[in-house]
Amino acid sequence: MGVQNNLFYRSFYAMGTRFEMVIPGSERKRLENFSRDMEEKVLWWHRHLSRFEPDSDISRVNLEASRHPVEVDEKIFFVLEECNRYVRDTHGLFDPAILAIQEFWKESRWSGDPQDVKKIASRSGWKQVILDPEKQTVFFKTKDTGIDPGAFGKGLALREAGNFLKNEGLENALLSFGGSSILGVGKHPHGPHWPVGITHIFAPYRNVYVFPLHDAALSSSGASLQRKPAGKEEYLPVFHPRTGMPVTGWKTVSVMTKDPLEAEILSTAFLVANETERDDILKTFAGISQSVEIIYLKQKENVRTFTNSLNTDDQNEKTGIKT
């Protein structure tokens, strides 16, 4: 934490990854106080939404909701209602209730029987979640249902952090959750926007595509390689919520939009959507500035961009974009 070259930097752990903020300015005391307040706001969502925190609201819901309806407070019920809306608007391709599928593949070390996966997929997912607005309760129809609001939580926390920035009169900042969920407020000190690159999966020193963020959010979803000690790597797949099967191939989808939460939802949904499904979803969301799909090959990568205009001129396929 501190100010260097008139840039204030602070980071902390939240939502299963590192939250970082970069704010132009030389008022060290003011920025330190502001960053502590922002950290507390982000950590509030972490404490209540993280499934890895045993005392969180979501952990309590996952533990009890298959046995009886669980009452939650107003903020958490708002989260669940918003999840319900986004599941509907993405035709089920964003589904934060496939925790059983994730756990099955992890326990089977990525070699599960497809028939077992099919059974688990049929008994889990948001279709098994019942919300009661009057009583403010949530109930799971099966014991295989579990909610993991990770992507939703990061998007919501970024939205709240951006609003806090503006309310405090800070016009320029870059906020990031692990480099995959980013909010660029205002502009870079030396340019009209915050340039954010999408790095190559197999060559992380090289950008494949660069997004210009100016009062805009960027979310990237896809299979990834997690670097382990001693040079080892672990493949971290993404699962299709309907079939429960891992998404095959090396592909990422990045979405730039005004709302950090919608960027998270859409990058997740577009990763598993086919072209017809993607176009149907695009009709519902008006705020998408740009989406980029990158398919990684051995020697090069295919990059395709598309927007919500559904105009063929906006859908271009390029190979090996240089940045």
Strand content: 25-35%
Give the number of helices.
8
Q: How does CATH name the architecture of the domain at 193-323?
A: Roll
In helices, the fraction of residues equals 25-40%
Main beta sheet: strand number and arrangement?
A: 10 strands, antiparallel
Classified in CATH, the superfamily of the domain at 193-323 is ApbE-like domains
Give the low-confidence spans. 309-323
Q: What structural class do you assign from the helix and strand content?
A: alpha+beta
H-E string: EEEHHEHHHEEHEEEEEEEEHHEEE
Would you give the CATH topology of the domain at 193-323?
T-fold
Q: Taking strands numbered 1, 2, ... along the chain, how are they ordered across the largest sheet?
A: 1-2-3-7-8-11-14-15-16-17
What is the arithmetic mean of pLDDT? 87
Number of strands: 17
Instruction: Please tell me what the overall shape is.
Output: globular
Query: Radius of gyration, Cα only, in angstroms?
Result: 20 Å
- Text of the CATH class of the domain at 193-323: Alpha Beta
Distance between the termini: 31 Å
